[in-house]
Specification:
By secondary structure, this protein is of the alpha/beta class. It is built from five helices and 28 strands. The protein has a domain of 109 residues. Helices cover 14% and strands 18% of the residues. Keywords: Leucine-rich repeat, Repeat.
Length: 493
């Protein structure tokens, strides 16, 4: 039975080939001493003498600039070929028909030619990320009838022509290029495409005629001003839509995508929440916009919503019970807004609540009493000066509490709060005193000085209470003696 032989060393990461007599693993610490023939800036056919059963060849950061013609042609068992972080200016020629994975990321390839991929009918993965390719067209990718994944991120692609004849393609990524327009015929033959990304381009609209099979569409970091959902309403299988970092001022019609579970529209120009959201939505990210108000109508149908991100907006109004219908919500982010208080009647299912960077002054039992499942509470950088003991006692699962950046008034009442938190095993971050002046800058969670002062104060109070109790008992005894005398007198009479 044939085994695998692996060589792993700097510059020449690994090659694997079947050979009955080769050991399971061979490691060469010095590439130049062990394989002087690999130190050249060019890979040649002679380098592979005796390696006709080679299956995987991976060369990383070796400085290789070229590959001699027909170098890999005779390697009929080669399945994986990878040249990462080298200086290749073209795709190696005459690649074997057995190839299934070709990764040429981070080289200097400027153009693709039909001959580069001729006969590669078994190729499933093609990666050409971070090269210098300026265009992509059907003529460049012939014969790739088995291709499943195509990644050309980080090039200089300005034009994309169609139709791309890649009938089995499922994953296509053209991120961080220079596209301004996507012709409608590009996707005509891509009827099995499920994941498509055009993030980081200059597109002003979502491409038309997208395949019905699409599950995920990424359009972040473009120049979208309007999204016309009527153009994509046929995407009945679409589950995830990413539109962050564009110029959208409103989003209407997203309810047409009935199976959408994730919608990300952060870093846009939204002033209101998107109306009539799909009922199956599980994650909604509207962070870093200009949203001012959270009201019930936007959320009344979102019973499956689990994650809601509204941080870095200007929310000053949060209607009580606005999220009551969101019976699965576990994560709510409201950092960096204009809230003056913790919203009332939040869903009982919350496990994480982030309220950092608001203007909240109080933390009360009324606001938190229903959150029995809450594990993380972030109250950093607010205006809270005291903790409500009943509120803390009503959070049985609280594991992480963030309190720094608040003007804590370190009276001895905070010591009782500290004991409650310690008993829960809650990890508390922050809690520096702002008052009184003699305790300013100290942490009420760790300061031994505060503990000693409060223990002394407590001892004095207890002693004072004991003295008062003793005096009261003495007064009571004296009173009883007087009453006895009176009674005796009365009886005598």
């Amino acid at each position: 039975m044939a085994s695998s032989c692996v060589v792993d060393k700097p510059g020449f990461r690994a090659y694997r080939f079947s050979h009955a007599s080769c050991p399971t693993s061979v490691v060469f610490p010095n590439l130049a001493a062990s394989f002087p023939k690999w130190t050249s800036l060019s890979i040649k056919l002679s380098n592979f003498t005796g390696l006709l059963a080679l299956e995987d060849f991976i060369l990383l950061a070796s400085g290789t600039e070229s590959v001699e013609n027909d170098t890999f042609k005779t390697l009929s068992t080669l399945r994986t070929l990878e040249f990462w972080k080298n200086k290749l200016r073209r795709v190696p020629s005459a690649l074997p028909a057995s190839l299934e994975v070709l990764k040429l990321n981070e080289n200097s390839i400027c153009a693709l030619h039909a001959s580069d991929f001729e006969g590669l009918k078994k190729l499933k993965v093609l990666e050409l990320k971070n090269n210098l390719i300026s265009s992509l067209s059907p003529s460049m990718l012939p014969s790739l009838i088995s291709l499943r994944s195509l990644m050309v991120d980080g090039n200089n692609i300005e034009s994309l022509a169609g139709p791309l004849s890649l009938p089995h393609l499922k994953y296509m990524s053209v991120e961080n290029n220079k596209l301004h327009l996507i012709p409608g015929n590009v996707f005509t033959s891509l009827q099995n495409l499920q994941f498509l990304s055009f993030s980081g381009n200059f597109l002003t609209k979502i491409p038309t005629n997208l395949p019905k099979s699409l599950l995920s569409l990424k359009m972040e970091r473009n120049q979208l001003k309007v999204v016309r959902f009527r153009d994509v309403r046929h995407l009945e299988n679409l589950s995830r839509l990413y539109l962050s970092e564009n110029f959208l001022s409103s989003i209407d019609g997203v309810q047409l995508l009935t199976n959408l579970t994730t919608l990300e529209v952060s870093q846009n120009r939204l002033q209101t929440l998107p109306p009539r959201l799909p009922a199956r939505l599980q994650k909604l990210d509207c962070s870093s916009n200009f949203i001012q108000k959270v009201a019930a109508p936007e959320f009344q149908d979102l019973r499956d919503l689990k994650h809601l991100f509204l941080d870095n907006n200007v929310v000053s109004v949060f209607e009580a019970g606005a999220l009551q219908k969101c019976s699965q919500l576990s994560n709510l982010a409201l950092e960096q807004n204009l809230l003056l208080s913790i919203p009332l009647r939040l869903p009982k299912t919350l496990a994480r609540l982030d309220l950092k960077g608001n203007a909240i002054q109080n933390m009360s039992e009324r606001e938190l009493r229903d959150l029995k499942l809450l594990q993380v509470l972030n109250l950093r950088n607010n205006k809270i000066s005291a903790l409500d003991l009943k509120a803390l006692e009503g959070l049985p699962r609280l594991r992480h509490l963030y309190l720094d950046g608040n003007p804590w008034n370190c009276t001895c009442s905070v010591l009782r709060a500290r004991e409650v938190l310690k008993a829960k095993g809650t990890d508390v971050k922050g809690g520096q005193c702002a008052a009184p002046a003699e305790r300013q800058g100290e942490s009420w969670m760790s300061s031994k000085k505060i503990v000693r002062q409060c223990e002394h104060h407590l001892h004095q109070n207890e002693k004072s209470k004991e003295n008062k109790k003793k005096l009261k008992l003495e007064d009571s005894s004296s009173s009883r003696l007087s009453m006895d005398d009176d009674d005796d007198d009365y009886e005598i009479d």
